[in-house]
Write a structure and sequence with these properties.
- By secondary structure, this protein is mainly β.
- Helix content is 4%, strand content 40%.
- An eight-stranded mixed beta sheet has the order 16-15-22-18-19-20-21-17, with helices on both faces. A four-stranded antiparallel beta sheet has the order 1-2-3-4, with no helix packed on it.
- Strand 27 and strand 28 form a beta hairpin.
- It starts with a strand and ends with a strand.
């Protein structure tokens, strides 16, 4: 969420733009707009506006993961990421020139960009985060599009955005030498002078998992990953056979869904859920409550781009602290999820209903592959979208820190408004300060409290009336709230 200054024939004042990513069926979707010109008297302008088609919940806008607003001349707009059309037309552009009457003016995405390439471990694609900036008289959009990389669009005409290009991580990856590279373009921003882009890839799976169906007609190896936060028996460091056994289909695994069969009732060792609707951690908690110590989550219909990327998989963040930590969990592709139950792959309809609740599947085995590190930071040439340098904290490249030290993945970046300096929220690795340029990236500062931190969001801000032009860094810690820093240099 953020506030933009809107000055159009229909409205003059400060508008708060929020995305709505509902956690339960009754939650709002889309975006909401509020008049915060007087922050002591906030007024709702539009609540829960967004794309309604196709509808998984009639009358409710799709779930939006992120939203960014801007004004160009006398018109104002919001660009948002649509969770329910991932990898297809998941870039939503909404005109808010009259913020009491928003209008959806364009949906676009990967199908409109035939020259874009999907290249990363898992081949997962979705629009995760966006910014729009005026550069040399033109409006440009920067989209963090996971395994497509960072995408740039000409946004001079928001109803008709023009694809410019997409980035690819080098292969093999420079820091640890893996091919394919991780991918996971999560968030990014232009530098103050727009010469560079600094982007973060978010990776909660510090090992590459080897997943195998060990019985039945579809026996063989398939792609998969590990949820680093669900590791009672860490798949990444486990002996062969630590994650194995027979399977049962549990549906979607959300609180509002039909109760899955218990382990005692099914006789299976592993329960399998579909991705979609609720947090990954809620699904793992559902499996745990049903008595299972092993959970598999298969890719959703949207995540597989309706079958275009049948083998894509993603092991996302915890999302909610409701998992007690007594269950191991992995993620696999949608197609292999069907093959596990000897079922023809299907990519339509509500997630979780493809297979009969309680159906028994084949046996599986998952073992940890080679340690491949946590999520890193990438410096790109903004004109060519080629990588200049890559950075990660030292511990995130050390297998001794694969478990037991929290998440050591980069999360978000905020650019200084006047210098080639970036501020990172780095989960358990704290707040990091980087200097960057043609010679690469150098860490020049960091902060971690003695009791630890879990920094999620970061923003850089200069007070308009401050003659010292001091830059303040705001960091949101998921355990302790808002922290405010000043980088002193040296």
């Amino acid at each position: 969420m953020h506030v933009i200054e809107v000055n159009t024939p229909a409205f003059k004042g400060d508008v708060l733009v929020t995305n709505n990513e509902q956690c339960q069926a009754a939650g709002k979707g889309g975006i909401s707009l509020y008049d915060v010109t007087d922050p002591t008297a906030i007024t709702a302008l539009a609540v829960g506006f967004g794309d309604l088609v196709p509808s998984s919940a009639p009358g409710r806008a799709h779930s939006y993961h992120s939203a960014f607003g801007w004004q160009d001349k006398k018109r104002a707009f919001v660009i948002a990421s649509d969770n329910e059309e991932q990898g297809s037309f998941d870039v939503e552009i909404i005109e808010i020139t009259d913020p009491t009457n928003p209008v959806l003016i364009r949906e676009t995405g990967l199908p409109d960009w035939p020259t874009a390439t999907v290249f990363g471990n898992g081949n997962t694609v979705f629009n995760h985060d966006m910014v729009v900036k005026k550069i040399k008289g033109h409006m440009y959009g920067l989209l963090s599009y996971w395994d497509v990389g960072w995408v740039t669009l000409n946004m001079d005409d928001p109803a008709n955005p023009v694809f410019i290009g997409d980035s690819n991580h080098p292969s093999p990856e420079p820091l640890l030498g893996f091919a394919p590279p991780e991918g996971n373009a999560h968030q990014g921003e232009w530098s103050h002078n727009s010469k560079y882009i600094l982007g973060t890839d978010e990776d909660f799976s510090p090992t590459r998992t080897q997943f195998t169906i060990t019985s039945g007609p579809n026996a063989g190896g398939y792609g998969g990953g590990t949820f680093g936060w669900a590791d009672l028996v860490p798949v990444g460091n486990a002996p062969v056979g630590a994650f194995q056994g027979s399977t049962v289909w549990g549906g979607r695994g959300c609180v509002a869904d039909p109760v899955p069969p218990t382990k005692a009732a099914s006789g299976a060792d592993v329960i399998v859920f579909s991705r979609g609707t609720c947090f990954f951690s809620e699904k793992v908690a559902t499996g745990q409550a049903a008595g299972y110590d092993k959970v598999i989550i298969i890719q959703s219909h949207a995540g597989s781009v309706s079958g275009l990327l049948p083998d894509s998989f993603i092991c996302g963040g915890q999302g909610s602290p409701i998992v007690a930590g007594t269950t191991s969990a992995i993620c696999i592709g949608h197609e292999s999820g069907h093959l596990l139950f000897n079922d023809s792959p299907n990519y339509t309809g509500p997630d979780g209903t493809d297979i009969l609740l309680g159906a028994l599947g084949e046996s599986v085995n998952a073992t940890g592959g080679i340690f491949d590190g946590w999520g890193a930071v990438h410096l790109l040439n903004a004109d060519t979208l080629t990588q200049v340098d890559e950075y990660a904290v030292a511990e995130s490249l050390d297998s001794d820190f694969a478990t037991g030290f929290g998440n050591l993945s980069a999360h978000e970046v905020a650019m200084d408004k006047a210098e080639d300096i970036a501020y990172l929220s780095y989960y358990s690795a704290g707040i990091r300060v980087l200097k960057f340029g043609s010679s690469g990236i150098q860490e020049v500062g960091h902060y971690i409290h003695a009791d630890g931190n879990d920094f999620w969001g970061v923003q850089a801000h200069r007070l308009p009336a401050d003659p010292t032009e001091t830059t303040y860094i705001l960091g949101s810690d998921r355990s302790s709230g808002l922290w405010i820093f000043r980088y002193t240099g040296g």
